[in-house]
Amino acid sequence: MHYLTACKSYIESLVARGGPLESDDAVFLELLAGLRGFLRDAEPPFSEVDFREWFGPAMSEATLQGRAVRHPRGYDDDFEIIDRIYRRDVSADKALTNWDRFYQRQTAPEAVRNRKAYFHALLDRHAELGRPLQVLKLANGPGRCLFEWFELHPDAPVQVDCVEGDAAAIAHSVELNHPYLDRVSFTHAEARSYRPRKAYDLIWVPGLFDSFNDGLAVAMIIRLMPALAPGGQLVIGNFSDRNPSRNYMELLGECPLYQRSDEQWRELALACGVAPECIRVGGSPGSGHLFLHLAAEAERLALMPA
User: Fold this and answer.
1) DSSP state for residue 42 in the 8-state scheme
2) Residue 221: which of 240, 239, 207, 203 has the closest Cα?
3) Residue 51 contacts residue 8 (beta carbons within 8 Å)
4) Does residue 201 or residue 285 have the better pLDDT?
5) Which residue has the higher pLDDT, 119 or 256?
6) Which residues are 187's β-sheet partners?
7) Residue 114 predicted with pLDDT over 80
8) Is-cis flag, bond preceding 45, omega within 30?
9) What is the rounded distance in angstroms from the CA atom of residue 245 to the CA atom of residue 2?
10) Is the pLDDT of residue 187 over 70?
11) For residues 216-238, average pLDDT
């Protein structure tokens, strides 16, 4: 109990002074790692301690971490959280600003921003070829990554079909991408069970597979691969098993994820019947995110960013 008392005291001291500064990050993250291990292994009544109460308003929906815990839209990483991560938004409330700054400094939000940049790099590589491109984007989120790319490439012959299960996310995306609706379409459907109705040059799935066990991951890959056009590619984003934000995400956010290694991704792809020469894993494990590239033809891997 002495250990929990010490943890509670430290967290309450952070709350009292308006949240952690960057100089507090190492100590705070080490405390969260220790607390996660303690609660995971503890017997009742310690395992039933609601440590989130120690954070007070810092765990309310007014903060990014509080929103991630409370799931106001009924699912993890809703489009509003993702958009705030993209924009590096922080609360205007001085008592909460440093909590959002702490959240935005972590590897996981940086990985979310990096996957937007990765998608842009994929589109850039294809755009350099100067020919029309058909793209399927599953779990579209706020639609900001498309808007930002089309702002830089307003005349690109790229058609993007977006699938999203949250009607509010679609409404937000439609408004944001209004100038480009001649090239962006939206389907209201559950992305995890969606079956494509035509062939695509690029199928982009940035944030679904973190919540899939291996069986679901294999089933979805097998369902998507036949929708690749000749020379097409399927690119899947997934948190790395070396994601430094794991303790923070899984302890505070109650967000257990399937975070995979390069080797695990290759094994899953082989289990789907994909030829070894058509498999590539991009990204850096230390960056918190990896990207599985599956090509219909091995030579198409040359178009994929490192």
Assistant:
1) P
2) 203
3) yes
4) 201
5) 119
6) 163
7) yes
8) yes
9) 26
10) yes
11) 95
* Structural domains for the chain: 2-105 (no CATH), 109-245+256-303 (3.40.50.150)
In angstroms, the CA 14 to CA 213 distance is 36
CB-based contact 153:127 (threshold 8 Å): yes
For residue 120, which amino acid is it?
H
Q: Could you tell me which residues are beta bridge partners of residue 235?
A: 204, 293
Q: What is the pLDDT of residue 303?
A: 52
Phi, psi of 174 (to 5 degrees): -60, -45
Token couple for 40: 């995971």
Residue given tokens 């690029």 in the structure block: 202
Whole-number Å distance between alpha carbons of 270 and 298:
14
**Confidence bin at 306 (pLDDT 50/70/90):** very low
Helix-helix angle 107-127:144-152, to 10 degrees: 40
pLDDT at residue 144, as a whole number: 97
User: How big is the CA angle at 222 (ends 217 and 223), to the nearest 5 degrees?
Assistant: 100
Q: List pLDDT tens digits, range 290-305.
A: 999 999 876 555 555 5
Distance CA 179, CA 303 (A): 28
List the beta bridge partners of residue 159.
134
- What's the rounded mean pLDDT across residues 138-159? 95
pLDDT of res. 302: 52
Determine the pLDDT at residue 277: 93
Using an 8 Å Cβ cutoff, are 8 and 84 in contact?
no
Whether the CA torsion 179, 183, 188, 190 is positive or negative: it is negative
Measured in whole angstroms, how far is the alpha carbon of residue 231 from the centre of its chain? 26
Q: Which amino acid is at 113?
A: R
Dihedral, 209, 175, 88, 163 alpha carbons, nearest 10: 0
